[in-house]
Design brief:
There is one protein chain. The protein folds into 2 domains: 181 residues, no CATH class; 89 residues, Chitinase A, domain 3 (Roll), CATH 3.10.50. Helices cover 52% and strands 13% of the residues. It contains 11 helices and 6 strands. α1 runs antiparallel to α2, α1 crosses α3 and α4 crosses α5. The longest helix is centred in the C-terminal third of the chain and has 29 residues. The radius of gyration is 26 Å and the shape is elongated. The two termini are 35 Å apart. The relative contact order is 0.14.
């Protein structure tokens, strides 16, 4: 396989991988009864396959596979150069897989994981783990990561440790308040004045066919309301009285909304979720241990960031 062919193959591989990993999610099932559930798709893959660190390893792994294929690295083996091509390739691959540009936090995360991968790559070469597949950088990285994994151990824990972690992360497990509401679509203008006039007519019982523009929503949590409509809308709906049409502001203009019902929030019970909590704590702790181990290895390298200097 020629050098350019290997580079194109690496890009195609990571694009397919990102499309695949972006579809994976987990389902949290709470024991509280009386609330409709709409579970997301569950993954049949092990927990480590769903870790963000692994997803970024895959992306970071390909970013400089192209660099290694197109140009041979020379100079001090203990100096890592982060060139401007890191930004360019990261943005291109991220946009191709997610449909948008990465924000500053996401780009910084890609930079850091690329750096972690470069450290693993060089450690893998130092351990001669590349024998037989030198051109395939990702496989060298995974081999080096397996060496890190072999020396990564879960720290001791007890029920008090898990319970304290559960309390700090309670938002992941509590059942939020849920809202049933309707939205009456106003044809044409949706200015504040127009929607308020429409709402007044609806509350007065003025005859009119709004059925074609009526949307019904069930069991929407507050987080979904904030994401879809905005914080001001969510706060107003929280304080609304059921059965009354209201003119509420949203991200996309004013809407005519009627609250039908609210299901009260239900706090999670640690005892009934201990197994789930243990697995989540284990996954997060092991991920943090792996990352910390790679950062320790990185201390033997000097990092020269030409990407930031070139801006």
């Amino acid at each position: 396989m020629g050098r350019m062919t290997q580079a194109h193959a690496a890009v195609l591989s990571i694009r397919l991988t990102l499309q695949f990993t972006s579809t994976m999610s987990t389902t949290r099932v709470h024991p509280a009864a009386g609330v409709s559930r709409h579970p997301t798709r569950t993954s049949a893959f092990p927990a480590w396959l769903r870790e963000p660190l692994l997803h970024f390893v895959l992306l970071g792994g390909v970013l400089f596979a192209i660099d290694h294929v197109l140009s041979e690295r020379t100079g001090d083996p203990h100096t890592i150069v982060v060139g401007p091509e890191v930004d360019e390739e990261a943005r291109t691959l991220f946009k191709a897989s997610r449909g948008r540009e990465p924000d500053a936090k996401e780009l910084a995360a890609l930079h850091q994981v690329w750096l972690d991968n470069e450290v693993l790559y060089r450690e893998g070469l130092a351990l001669q783990l590349d024998r037989g597949d030198r051109a395939i950088r990702e496989r060298v990285i995974f081999k080096a990561l397996s060496v890190v994994d072999a020396n990564t151990k879960l720290p001791p824990y007890d029920d008090q440790t898990l319970r304290a972690w559960f309390e700090r992360n309670r938002a992941k497990y509590d059942e939020p308040a849920r809202y049933d509401f309707q939205e009456a679509a106003l044809a044409g203008e949706n200015s504040e004045a127009a929607v308020r006039g429409f709402v007044k007519a609806l509350n007065a019982g003025t005859p009119g066919d709004i059925g074609a523009g009526l949307r019904v929503f069930k069991n929407r949590p507050e987080s979904n309301l904030v994401q879809s409509y905005g914080e001001e809308f969510a706060a107003a709906l929280h304080n609304a009285a059921p059965g009354q049409w209201l003119a509420l502001p949203t991200h996309d203009g004013w809407r005519a909304i009627r609250l039908d019902a609210v299901s009260a929030p239900k706090p999670a019970v640690y005892e009934s979720l201990r197994g789930v909590v243990l697995q989540d704590w284990t996954d997060l702790t092991m991920s943090e241990q792996r990352t910390a181990a790679v950062r320790v290895l990185a201390r033997k390298y000097r990092i020269r960031n030409e990407a930031a200097a070139g801006k």
